[in-house]
Amino acid sequence: MDISSLRAFNAARDARRAVLLLTDLTGGGERVIAPGNTVEEGLAVAVEDAFRSGKSRVVETGGRKFFLNVHLPPPRLVVIGAVHISQALASMAKIAGYDMEIIDPRAAFATGERFPDVRLYAEWPEDMLEARPLDAFTALAALTHDPKIDDYPLRQAILADCFYVGALGSRKTHAARIERLKATGLSDEQIGRIRAPIGLDIGAASPAEIAVAVLGEVIAALRKRGSGTG
Asked: Which PANTHER family match (predicted)?
């Protein structure tokens, strides 16, 4: 990898952006590609698939071979609310390979005793999300039921194009949430990205079951992003 490609590749990785190094194995040469960049027609599908799957591979087209070396940022799960569902999610997310963190300004809930093995911030989301911005490889789950805590991160998740945005609450609760978010300038299409009620429809009742439903929906959103099926 030449120095300019290395710098561009590392800069994208440091900024938590997807990036792909395309190397011409037949004629030589390489270039760094970001999602949405224009590529040769014969490579477009393979590049799109690489960004979706995160799998590097060799592709042959037009009598030439190319190596697609793709890097995707590790998926992050940001949970708003140090609640019982979050406790169950913490262990499940770790097993599934997600870097999970919890934000909840309510110090009585956000304690190390309740969450010994997860990154925990007893701060307001407005403060934490400024210091640790959301991005396209982050999933956000709002679980407090409190508009003063949930609404801001939901809006930021939509604006940051998080691959998953979910919110706990009944349809009646969500209808009120929609009106509040509309008042902040979000469109119906943007608000429609919020999964509410949160989680896959598996009839979940207990906090652990709801956590399973949420994590399943998060995984599906990550793996199907950009495919038109998620």
From this structure: ALDEHYDE OXIDOREDUCTASE MOLYBDENUM COFACTOR ASSEMBLY PROTEIN, MOLYBDENUM COFACTOR INSERTION CHAPERONE PAOD
Phi, psi of 173 (to 5 degrees): -60, -40
pLDDT digits (tens, 9 = 90+) for 24-58: 999 888 999 998 888 888 899 999 889 988 899 99
Reference 66, options 38, 47, 48; nearest CA is 47
Residue 60 neighbours by CB distance under 10 Å: 12
The type of residue at 221 is A
The correct answer on CATH 3.10.129.10 for the domain covering 76-224 is no
Distance set, CA 26 to CA 23, 44, 47, 65, 67 (Å): 9, 18, 18, 6, 10
Specify the amino acid at residue 108: A
Domain boundaries, the chain: 3-71, 76-224
Q: Measured between alpha carbons, how far is residue 200 from residues 18, 28, 168, 197, 208 in Å?
A: 27, 47, 12, 9, 13
